[in-house]
Amino acid sequence: MQDKSKIILLTILGVGIIVFNSCKNNNQKEESYYRYYSTSSDRIISYKNPNIVHYKDNLYFIGDTIYIGVPLVEDVLKNNKIFSERKGICLINPAEYNLSIDTSSYRFIIEELIASDINHVIAFPKGKYKLPFIEILKLNPDRLSLIDNSKTYIKDDSLVYCIPTNTYIKVNPGEFHTIYNENVEYGKYENIIYYLDTPIDTLK
């Protein structure tokens, strides 16, 4: 009877381990990494370095060198329709942008779109041709705030930045807010309505 109980217990534990490992394998998809061939080229090549370590958010280390990981997306044709698919992560050395990252204060403001550390606000625009790159914004990280839940606008005390278009809107940030109509977020400044960064209507 005792041996039978042991067999049952071992069977249960064995099934549990198999289920756990299966879930682990399904949830931890191995990421593919890429890099630019050179700083003067748009050519992106596979990065096979086995020592890539994910630190947090979109920061990675290879040895003592820190990298910013930006999603690499490409258009694919399926059933006569074009879809955008994530291919992997493009690792960009911030030193190439004369950018020094403070890892202790670095965090996502908007996942995969906007991050900040104690000194900088950094954007990861999708770009017209989907080439991954980073841009240091002219925004003060100490004064930074989201204007809307749709992740369209962000501001500090001197500038409003439109995230989808990667542009600044020349308005007083303190008087700029948003209105929501028919599932679309619009900006509003004084009597002017904006769609993204473009004035589209003047209220009477």
Compact summary:
The protein is 13% helix and 43% strand.
Would you write up a description of this structure?
This protein has 204 residues and is mainly beta. Helix content is 13%, strand content 43%. The protein is built from one helix and 18 strands. A six-stranded mixed beta sheet has the order 2-1-6-5-4-3, with no helix packed on it. A hairpin with a 2-residue loop joins strand 16 and strand 17 (192-195). It starts with a helix and ends with a strand. Residues 1-28 have low confidence and may be disordered.
For the structure shown, list the relevant keywords.
single chain; mainly beta; 6-stranded mixed sheet; 1 helix
What shape does the CA trace take? globular
Strand order, sheet with most strands: 2-1-6-5-4-3
Q: Over all CA atoms, what is the radius of gyration?
A: 23 Å
How many beta strands in the DSSP annotation?
18
Helix/sheet category = mainly beta
State the assembly state of the protein chains. single chain
The N- and C-terminal alpha carbons lie at a distance of 88 Å
Number of helices: 1
* N-to-C SSE string, H for helix and E for strand: HEEEEEEEEEEEEEEEEEE
Give the biggest sheet.
6 strands, mixed
- Strand portion: 35-45%
Kindly state the percentage of residues in helix: 10-25%
